[in-house]
Amino acid sequence: MHPGQVFTLILAAALCVGGAWICIGRWSRARHLLDTPTSRIRSAAQGYVELVGVLRELMVPQPMAPLTGERCLWWRYRIEEYRSNGKRSSWSVVERGVSEAWLRLADATGECLIDPRGAEVHPAFRKVWTGDLRHPRGVAPNGWLGLFSIGKRYRYTEERLHEGEPLYALGDFRTSGGGRQGLDLQSAKRDVIRQWKGDFAGLLQRFDSNADGQLDEQEWSRVRLAARLEAEDRHRESSAAPALHQLGQPGEALPFVLSSHGEEVLTQRFYWQAAGGALMCLAGAVWLASQLGVTAW
């Protein structure tokens, strides 16, 4: 078997495996969307949840989209350069970036902060245009003029999320404050003692009643009692604070999805992508079989 045949076999196998991976991954995402019920922010259980609401501005300056300078809540961009060597030409990515600014999602029951890092984001706003400069200046041209690429060296893509847009979110939900956390008294007490030991001189000053430079059993009993009372006080203070809801990337291998489109649109998109992956897998399998001389008979 000569090197060309080996390369063809590897390419066919890669097409088959890659298609199967896309099919399984996209199908799994669609099933997670359908199988996870929509929760309200105020009453959502801790863990993996699905939320639907409207994006609101945080009490900080809004991010600026790097290519157009437009105000938004989140952005992603890509710059491609047109390259040609005489025989073949293509667009190659020379720069890309994505916002890490936190988002604020609101529904009828409350608000939730979202850390978008690691999320698969599907914004409704997407603009593609071309130009002669590595970094464009000003607002992107409208209509077909922005895609007219003859003589243009660079192609720009910018995606954004804006205030007031609907947002579908699927990820790991956590709440702090508001009396939602239970108290593990033994663990909390150990944390307090560990913190006090970091300033052992101060610990001796407070509890070394006989001034011998060390803590005996009776003095350690006082330390443990004081630590328990301190842990209870800290828990009461944190419980009295307003509830803070946050959504982020799940720790397990679960999808983290943010989208301006609803569940139905996303699910259909994932199913179509899964079907495309299945066709790739089938094409790769047929190609591989033909190269190996395998027939269906």
From TrEMBL:
One of its GO terms (cellular component) is membrane. It is found in: Membrane. Residues 80-179 form the E3 Ubiquitin ligase MUL1-like domain. It catalyses: S-ubiquitinyl-[E2 ubiquitin-conjugating enzyme]-L-cysteine + [acceptor protein]-L-lysine = [E2 ubiquitin-conjugating enzyme]-L-cysteine + N(6)-ubiquitinyl-[acceptor protein]-L-lysine. Pfam families: GIDE (PF12483). GO terms for molecular function: ubiquitin protein ligase activity; zinc ion binding. It is a multi-pass membrane protein. The chain crosses the membrane at residues 6-24, 270-289. Its EC number is 2.3.2.27. The keyword Membrane applies. It comes from the Bacteria. Keywords: Membrane, Metal-binding, Transferase, Transmembrane, Transmembrane helix, Ubl conjugation pathway, Zinc, Zinc-finger. One of its GO terms (biological process) is protein ubiquitination. This is RING-type E3 ubiquitin transferase.
